[in-house]
Amino acid sequence: xxxxxxxxxxxxxxxxxxxxxxxxxxxxxxxxxxxxxxxxxxxxxxxxxxxxxxxxxxxxxxxxxxxxxxxxxxxxxxxxxxxxxxxxxxxxxxxxxxxxxxxxxxxxxxxxxxxxxxxxxxxxxxxxxxxxxxxxxxxxxxxxxxxxxxxxxxxxxxxxxxxxxxxxxxxxxxxxxxxxx
Length: 181
What we know:
CATH class: Alpha Beta
Radius of gyration: 17 Å
CATH topology: Rossmann fold
Mean pLDDT: 91
Strand content: 15-25%
Number of strands: 5
């Protein structure tokens, strides 16, 4: 995308809410992320570096652009759309997390969990792009053993939560893009 002239990436995802105040349907601005997949050896920048695309070791201390985050906050306030903020953790999936994994993620500072976004954000930062991230909290991550296990019906609930949140997310993005233009 950067080679085509794109300067800003707005990454969206569906994520499980780990922090107790995150509920299904919430929108959460990503303020930082934990890339467990990258830390485990599947880093998106692994291998030879092309210096024309970016530095060998890009800084990730401001992976999510503070000015874009401020603009998102402003749009949310202007449109009356509740917007939460937090740290997103990426795991490889494709399974829902175990209760022990949810407790661990909470302990290390994750507010939400999903299976994407961190590699895209890392590569975009590598290429010098500005990045904004938004998670739709599509389910609440379970931190205790449940009487009924999560199954395909739970995935259906995730998809339904996404459909219900689309109007708010679109309104937020349309306002943001208008402001950025």
